[in-house]
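We store chain and fold; example below:
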Amino acid sequence: MAGFSSIAAASVLVVFLVMLSFSEAREFLVGGKADAWAVPSSESQSLNKWAESKRFNTGDILVWKYDSAKDSVLHVTKEDYVNCNMSSPIKQYKDGETKIVLDKPGPFYFISGTKDHCEKGQKLVVVVMSPRNRASTISPAPSPAVEIDGPAVAPAPTSTASPFKAAGVLVVAALMGFSAALLI
């Protein structure tokens, strides 16, 4: 019986770690490499193509690495994104290693702060999934097409608890009870 309870305890630990991994924020290096924040050589090299293959969740962090003497990152509105307007960004980043926390569901728009780079395709849209959609779907993130009109995702649930965390706690509690029952 002692061997079985060790297996049950190990199972509890594995289940707990798996559930915890679903709720942790992740860092994404924009474009998947350090020199990706640049004018793309072709449409297939667009950062939006990269973003389409990712699933972004609230709390995730985008990381840009670039030469701060030659470029910057501008967080802009949809209209400024479409028109490559650099004059009134929501926020401007010039540090060469920019980290932005995706703090709410919906689209985030970014353009280069270097003249003519946005017009040549150096821009990015990421769509952050709502917490409700996070647990219920596993399909890729929607395409960050220009037609996005704001959060096209379900509103956040009233509870801040992650469904995966709640399920993980219940599974751990049930397995612990099961393990304790075996020891009796």
User: Anything to note?
Assistant: The chain is about 35% helix and 20% strand.
